[in-house]
Specification:
Layout (H helix, E strand, L loop, with lengths): L1 H19 L5 E4 L6 E5 L6 E4 L6 E5 L3 E6 L6 E2 L6 E6 L5 E8 L2 E4 L14 E6 L5 E7 L5 E7 L3 E4 L8 E6 L5 E7 L3 E7 L9 E3 L10 E4 L5 E7 L2 E9 L4 E6 L10 H4 L2 E6 L6 E5 L6 E6 L3 E4 H7 L9 E8 L5 E7 L5 E7 L2
Antiparallel strand pairs: 1-28, 2-3, 3-4, 4-5, 6-7, 7-8, 8-9, 10-11, 11-12, 12-13, 14-15, 15-16, 16-17, 18-19, 19-20, 20-21, 22-23, 23-24, 24-25, 26-27, 27-28
Helix pairs in contact: 1-3
């Protein structure tokens, strides 16, 4: 009875949202198969991602459609103004490192920190970029073993951000203002870690993210100022997505969607992860489930966690009939544009973006 009451409450909220929508939004498919969306400008006019596991990377606009831009990126990111794209590319010696797109299929590789080492042909990889594109963060393989989070900018070059306990760490994202970097530190499980390049005030130096509710898990995304962090690993539900808000020190457990699986798989499928959050913390996006195909999700304070298709329908968005929207990893600063990857009606992976009015 409790679950039915909750379902009815969510349905009423979504119907209310749909009824109040002033105009229909838009669902835009990228129009090319095997396009996995990983980055988007703030206004949604430029989308980047990869094709296949190791690229090439692509850049999409409404005018150009999908254009291959080279590289061997596993992840491609873009500044909020859409002018700087970063990923990973090979240098003249065939070593892969973090890189900045120079136009066409040309990339400027950024190398590694002074203590860097090459492992399986890889020195560093990009995972996040600041709002203006001046700071890039990611993972660097370092001496003697393991990997560390790194920070790069034009003035300081690549800086090793270190790790706890002599284990590996990775920087997954950076606030738009460039001051707060979030990621994980390996301690048997991935614990959220924060690095404040300025070494002042809120997160002084490098510290594990602590809060009154205990340790939280891996951090995947943050907002413009670093005051909101999302990821997976709530203290009371290690498999569930969370939302941390600095102004009240709260770590909110976001839940997971029920999956129609056999009882033996229910515990494993009871999992979710948040990848992105709007600047005001009111729209969180991610995935729910373990075994593919996953469920793309949106969480808001009003609706809680719902499938993205349900959310878009409530917002008056159409055009995704026959799609299975398996992942949402991008949300605009104002929360009105989201993007991800789905299985199109032809059964192929394809990127998409949706804009709410």
């Amino acid at each position: 009875m409790k679950k039915r009451t909750l379902d009815l409450r969510v349905a009423v909220i979504l119907m209310s949202v749909a009824g109040s929508a002033a105009a229909q939004g838009t669902f835009t498919r990228l129009g090319s198969r095997d396009t996995y969306v990983t980055g988007m400008s703030a206004d949604g006019s430029v989308v980047v991602g990869i094709r296949g596991q190791y690229g090439p990377a692509f850049r999409w606009t409404a005018a150009t459609a999908v254009v291959n831009i080279g590289s061997v990126s596993q992840l491609t990111v873009i500044s909020r103004d859409g002018k700087v794209i970063a990923g990973s590319a090979k240098d003249a010696n065939g070593v892969t490192s973090a890189a900045i797109w120079q136009g066409g299929t040309n990339w400027k590789t950024l190398g590694g920190p002074p203590n860097g080492r090459v492992l399986d042909g890889v020195l560093t990889s990009t995972w996040g970029i600041s709002g203006d594109g001046s700071v890039i963060v990611g993972l660097a393989w370092v001496q003697p073993t393991g990997a560390h989070a790194f920070r790069w900018d034009g003035a300081h070059g690549m800086v090793d951000l270190g790790s706890f306990f002599g284990r590996s760490s990775r920087a997954n994202a950076i606030s738009a203002d460039g001051n707060v970097i979030v990621g994980w530190n390996e301690t048997g499980t991935y614990d959220a870690a924060l690095y404040n390049w300025l070494g002042s005030m809120w997160w002084q130096g490098m510290q594990r993210l602590m809060n009154p509710y205990g340790w939280i898990g891996q951090a995947e995304g943050t907002n413009d100022s670093g005051s909101v962090i999302v990821g997976r690993g709530h203290p009371s539900a290690p498999r569930h997505a969370y939302r941390f808000t600095a102004w009240d020190g709260r770590v909110e457990e976001l839940g997971a969607l029920p999956r129609g699986v056999r009882p033996a798989d229910q515990e494993q499928e009871n999992t979710s992860i948040a990848y992105g959050v709007s600047d005001d913390a009111n729209v969180v996006v991610g995935t729910s489930g373990w075994a593919p195909p996953l469920d793309g999700i949106v969480w808001t304070p009003e609706t809680k966690m719902v499938k993205v298709a349900q959310y878009l329908t409530a917002k008056g968005v159409t055009g995704f009939e026959g799609w299975n929207l398996v992942g949402v990893n991008l949300v605009s600063p104002d929360g009105k544009i989201i993007g991800g990857t789905g299985i199109n009606p032809d059964g192929q992976a394809e990127g998409w973006i949706a804009q709410m009015k």
